From TrEMBL, chains A, B:
It comes from the Bacteria. Residues 11-87 form the HTH rpiR-type domain. Pfam families: HTH_6, SIS. Residues 136-273 form the SIS domain. This is MurR/RpiR family transcriptional regulator.
Length: 282, 282
DNA sequence: GCCAGATTAGAATAAAAATTCCAAAATCAC
DNA sequence: GTGATTTTGGAATTTTTATTCTAATCTGGC
């Protein structure tokens, strides 16, 4: 019954999955995806637990195991279990180990950035003022159009915001500076601007922020310090203290703040829309 | 039968063991010692496997579990298993939590994203294979030009890479799709492509990755699962298991991986350049 | 829209594991 | 050394889990 060409390690399982997964029918593909996404759970769960989590019947999971070359689930689980104990010395020790080896290897550098990212995220909860965040959401929710301004290091933040707002169907203009075309003049009194910049502050961003203020548009700032020019202009300040590794600043905290902001604004706008509709109906 | 004063965590189990182990008879002490020495095996083994390794009868192991306050082995194993998988709680409970706390206050949402980001980062250390990372750095270091491909949700990652590589003075082309202009034809055999895409995978990204392979360019993939089409194409896989909050995927881990990759490549290229110069001088 | 083949769901069955039980052995007090 | 008490080993039982089987459903070609 049991093929002797059954995978012998988790890596083999994975490569087999990536080879075959295209030719799998729907349910088996579900199994493949679930196992690929949750390899650790295979070691400590039963067929029915896994199949339920994967949204399939136990028998489907069974076929999945067999299609991979195992005699059944038990054989597959054995492979996952033997790898399991190697994983046990967890993240903490792993990180330490990498630190010892110095900044030589890319993995050590990765560990460094991971650690810094975690610290930045931790900081974020204290550096962002909840009241300011709520005010920002309020302003952005009522804006006709939201303008996103941020260049160079800040551009990933604005482009992520652009993606999120598009998905949320919030009218948004991403000021990308492509082709040297300035979009400044598209800013109107009912609009709001999210300006993202960190020290040393981008001239271009400050200029556009200034124009926004002149036109009586709302201004929300994602920036690093209270001394930021954006704050002085009277922007609603969302402060992110991001840490550096070498010459590079991590962006984890800024991105997390950005996505939270976007989702909150999306929810707030929906609520606003709903209330407006109710008003009309009555 | 089951005491409700059963240990709830592995730590509790250990403290109970150290309290009681003196008063245990010989065989039960053997069990205690074995569990203390091999906590990782408890989660993935059966009673008979453990009892055999500990040099006792299954029934003795059974009594050991009960003397610790558990109803039996199964209950004890559950504690050991959940303690492990708690490190990566499943989406289901996460999402539920979010719904409970609601999108009530933006701060609550922010807290959620921070938490998810921290987890993703933690997991990044185990999901990225150090060998693959090194291989990726090697390929990118020797590339004449590095192409960055990633759209929509992945675009912040590629734009961040673009920024970093520019700062590091690494020749880079960011395939942005602006103006509908395709940059595919700029990919040449000595080049390398960093393709970033997560399920559901972007057609456009896969197309360009495919072209890269056809032209014999190196291909590095930042993606989420081994089942990713990029992996099947033979790309060097850097796997990031990012968690979703609602419909949105955090990007903390991907960004951290990206910046680590960029800095490592920058360093490797400098070293390569230096070695070339030395060769010329001599 | 109908048929052939593939795929699936769910019940039925087989296997394996946990748990209990009890007689045999060991330990201890006297 | 003897009897009472604790501890142990191993088989018997119960429960859980893996696995198989079959009827029903779906899918793709014509």
């Amino acid at each position: 019954m049991s093929d002797d060409n059954a995978p012998k390690s988790i890596d083999e399982v994975f490569s087999r999955i990536s080879q075959q997964s295209d030719s799998f029918p729907k349910r088996l593909k579900q199994c493949a995806d679930f196992v690929a996404a949750n390899p650790d759970r295979v070691a400590v769960s039963t067929v029915s637990e896994l199949s339920e989590s994967a949204g399939v019947q136990p028998s489907a999971f069974m076929r999945f195991c067999q299609d991979l070359g195992f005699s059944g689930f038990s054989q597959m689980q054995k492979v996952f279990r033997s790898d399991y104990s190697q994983k046990w010395p967890d993240y903490g020790t792993r990180l330490e180990k990498l630190r010892e080896h110095g900044t030589e290897s890319p993995s050590a550098l990765l560990a460094e950035f991971v650690e810094v990212g975690r610290m930045s995220l931790e900081n974020l909860m204290t550096s962002v003022d909840p009241a300011a965040l709520e005010e920002a959401v309020k302003q952005l929710a009522r804006a006709r159009t939201i303008h996103l301004v941020g260049f160079r290091r800040a551009f990933p933040v604005t482009s992520y915001l652009g993606y999120a707002f598009e998905k949320l169907e919030v009218p948004t203009i991403l000021h990308s500076g492509i082709g040297g075309i300035k979009l400044d003049h598209t800013i109107q009194p009912d609009d709001a601007v999210i300006a993202v910049t960190f020290a040393p502050y981008s001239e271009q961003t400050l200029e556009i922020a200034d124009i926004a203020k002149q036109r009586d548009a709302d201004l929300v700032a994602i920036t690093d310090l209270v001394t930021s020019p954006l704050v002085q202009m009277g922007a609603v300040p969302l402060l992110v203290a991001e840490l550096d590794v070498g010459a590079f600043r991590a962006l984890s905290a800024s991105l997390s703040l950005a996505i939270s902001l976007a989702v909150s604004v999306g929810a707030a706008r929906e609520k606003l829309q709903f209330e407006k509709n109710m008003l009309h109906d009555n």
